[in-house]
Structures are given as structure tokens and as C-alpha cells.
Design a protein that fits this description.
By secondary structure, the chain is α/β, with parallel strands linked by helices. The chain has two domains: 119 residues, Aspartate Aminotransferase, domain 1 (Alpha-Beta Complex), CATH 3.90.1150; 252 residues, 3-Layer(aba) Sandwich (Aspartate Aminotransferase, domain 2), CATH 3.40.640.10. The strands form three sheets. Strands 2-8-7-6-5-3-4 form a seven-stranded mixed β-sheet, with helices on both faces. α1 packs antiparallel against α8, α2 runs parallel beside α8 and α3 packs parallel to α4.
Length: 380
């Protein structure tokens, strides 16, 4: 019995509607949006618009034209950072961030952008008061992840958004681990830039993602090229969203993303999140009973998303993940999870931890089998 518990990396399996949508776009549409006046190109354009509308409905975005399709959350974050920040700007972020945010910020330091990293506590939680204290007159942006991909800590984004509004700075939210399982309302929370991948909690294929840009953000494009519009101009158009989507769209991927978002809307974000948290709580309660096991992240299930990381004294996390895979056909992830500062914050650097992350299609029976397998693998 194969068990997949690595949904924090990529959700699997996908809803059947996602597979059907991808194949329909490839077989029945075939053309690209904005690249012709024939019926297939027009149908592709309608599908692209419908995908934006579905995303807008999920995140309470008033204008779907402000949703830029990307190939990943990483691309979306790079666009949000490099498309806004200039020499002399200051950014406040946290020690719990993924490299998809930390590495672009590190590169921007060479361009004269200053970065303050607010340290989380031993459970991965960041105090909004510490973020407020880190603000300076030159602060242009607060940028952070909604949920830690290492320990599942859910940050207080309503408080962070209020701090940003009060200070008159932009708020960039990385929703890689929360999109699809935590309610997000960009207007109510005051989110100016929202980056998310399509292949995790939105159940789309790999190679999809998006960036929402509020009207308050003067964004510059990362790429120049064909947009299917303004073809007489040599300069890149700045109209949203076409001017920021140079090149051919991944239409099969976007079709799958649309179907995935519609699945999330049908099930309900809160329903999905509650189920995943219950499964994580089941695993945490069972693993906490085992000797030599250390769990990381908030102990309160309400403060933790559908991610659980742990270590077993005397057992290398990578070796344990290998045994679970090869002896029990259970997929988990070990190591630093592309977030070394988060592991330093939690005290798991440099060895990292083992992370399990159930999804909507995971079951309580699978969690029990996983826990039994951990016991067997760690048995002397």
C-alpha cells in the first residue's frame, strides 16, 4: 500500500477533474490565448480568463485582471520583489522563510536593498510586535510566509497586514503552504502582493502559480517578449496582466489549476484545512508517545497547518525517510526543506528533520500505518 505524505512539496493525487482538464486543453484546444483570432485561440483565452476568475473567487480578489500567471510561487515572489524594490529600500522578513523568498532578497542586497530578518521563537512563531519594531523610515515592504513549510507554524497575518497598513508599507504574503487550506481574503487582511504555487494546496499541476498585485503596487515586469497585445510597440507593455506574462502560457497547466481551484471552492477551504489538521494532530499525538521523538512547531493544533516535522534521537532523518520509502512505500521528506534559517530557529540545523504532510486524499488509516512504520524503523 503506497502512502503519500509529502503534500507540502507537491500534492498527490490530484482530483480527477484536474487530469481531465489538462488532457482536454492539450487534445481539444491546443492553441494559445492571444495568439490568433481563430476559435481555438479564443477558447484558450476564455479558459485563461476563467482560471483567473476562479482564483479571484478563492482569495476574494475584486479584479481578476490583477492576477498574473507564473510558472511557480518562486517566480511570483521574484516578480513581487524585483518588480518593486530599488536601491535604498528596506524589507522586513522573518527567519522562517523558504529560500524562494530568502535568496531573491539576498541577491537584492547587492543592489542596495536592506533586509532585516526578524527571528521566530523556538516553535516557529513570529511576534508581530517584533516586526513592528523592525520597521524603519525606509521600509518599503513586509514579506513573509503565511505557514512555515518546515514546522507548520501559522503566522498572524491579520496583525502583520494591519502593521503594514499603519506604516504605509507593502505587505507581500507567500501562501505556498496555505493556499487552499487556510482562508485568505486579500482585501480584509491588507495583502498587496500574494504569491502562491498551483501544485500544492490548489491541486494544479507542477509548473503553475500566480501573483496577485493590488492597485497600490507600481510593478515592473521581469521579462520582455511577446504578449499577444500591443504588438506595434518595441517596449514591454505595462498593462495587467498581459504585460507581465511574456511568452506562451502553460495552458494545459492553467487548465488543471483552474480545475484544482474549483475543487477547493467546492469542498471549502475550511473543510480541507480542518481535515488535514486532524490528520496532523493524529500523527503528533501518536509520535509524542514514542521515546526519543522530538516534535517541532506549535503544540496548539489551531496554530499549525498540515505540516509536522520531527526527529528521533540517534536516527538520521534522511536514513529514516529512506527506510520509510524503501521498506514501507511511504513518501515523506527529510533534510533542511530549502529553509536553513528556519531550521536554525528551531534548533534542527544542520541535520534537519523528517517532515510528513498529509493532504485532502490522505486517511486516518494511512496515518496509523505511518506511525507504526516509524516505530518499526527506529526499533534497535
Amino acid at each position: 500500500m503506497a502512502i503519500y505524505l509529502d503534500n507540502a512539496a507537491t500534492s498527490h493525487p490530484k482530483p480527477e477533474s484536474v487530469y481531465r482538464a489538462v488532457m482536454h486543453a492539450m487534445r481539444e484546444i491546443g492553441a494559445s490565448p492571444g495568439r490568433g483570432g481563430h476559435r481555438r485561440s479564443l477558447e484558450a483565452g476564455r479558459l485563461l480568463l476563467q482560471a483567473r476568475e476562479a482564483i479571484a473567487a478563492l482569495f476574494s480578489i475584486p479584479d481578476s485582471s490583477r492576477i498574473i500567471m507564473t510558472h511557480s510561487a518562486t517566480e511570483a515572489l521574484n516578480l513581487a520583489l524585483r518588480g518593486v524594490l530599488v536601491h535604498g529600500d528596506h524589507v522586513v522578513t522573518t527567519s522562517m522563510e523558504h529560500n524562494s523568498l530568502m535568496r531573491p532578497l539576498a541577491a537584492l542586497r547587492a543592489s542596495g536593498v536592506e533586509v532585516t530578518v526578524v527571528r521566530g521563537d523556538g516553535t516557529g512563531m513570529v511576534d508581530p510586535a517584533d516586526v513592528r519594531r523592525a520597521l524603519r523610515p525606509a521600509t518599503r515592504m513586509i514579506a513573509l510566509a503565511h505557514i512555515s513549510n518546515v514546522c507548520g507554524a501559522i503566522q498572524a497575518i491579520d496583525s502583520m497586514g494591519a502593521i503594514a497598513r499603519e506604516a504605509g508599507v507593502l505587505f507581500l504574503l507567500d501562501a505556498a503552504q496555505s493556499a487552499g487550506s487556510e482562508p485568505i481574503d486579500v482585501k480584509r487582511t491588507g495583502i498587496d502582493l500574494l504569491a502562491a504555487p498551483g501544485h500544492k494546496g490548489l491541486y494544479g499541476p507542477q509548473g503553475t502559480g500566480f501573483l496577485y498585485v493590488s492597485p497600490a503596487v507600481p510593478l515592473k515586469p521581469l521579462l520582455q517578449g511577446g504578449t499577444g497585445s500591443s504588438s506595434t510597440a518595441e517596449e514591454q507593455p505595462l498593462t495587467l496582466p498581459e504585460g507581465f506574462e511574456a511568452g506562451t502560457h502553460n495552458l494545459p497547466g492553467i487548465a488543471g489549476l483552474k480545475a484544482g481551484v474549483e475543487f477547493v471552492l467546492e469542498q471549502g477551504v475550511a473543510v480541507i484545512g480542518d481535515k488535514e489538521r486532524r490528520l496532523v494532530t493524529l500523527a503528533a499525538e501518536r509520535l509524542a508517545e514514542l521515546p526519543d521523538v522530538t516534535l517541532y512547531g506549535p503544540s496548539d493544533p489551531a496554530l499549525r497547518g498540515s505540516v509536522l516535522s520531527f526527529t528521533v534521537a540517534g536516527t538520521d532523518p534522511a536514513a529514516l525517510a529512506f527506510m520509510l520509502d524503501h521498506s514501507h512505500d511511504i513518501a515523506v521528506r527529510a533534510g533542511l526543506h530549502c529553509a536553513p534559517q528556519a531550521h536554525r530557529t528551531l534548533g534542527t540545523f544542520p541535520g534537519g528533520a523528517l517532515r510528513m504532510s498529509p493532504g485532502w486524499f490522505s486517511t486516518g488509516e494511512e496515518i496509523a500505518i505511518f506511525c507504526d512504520a516509524v516505530v518499526e524503523c527506529c526499533r534497535p
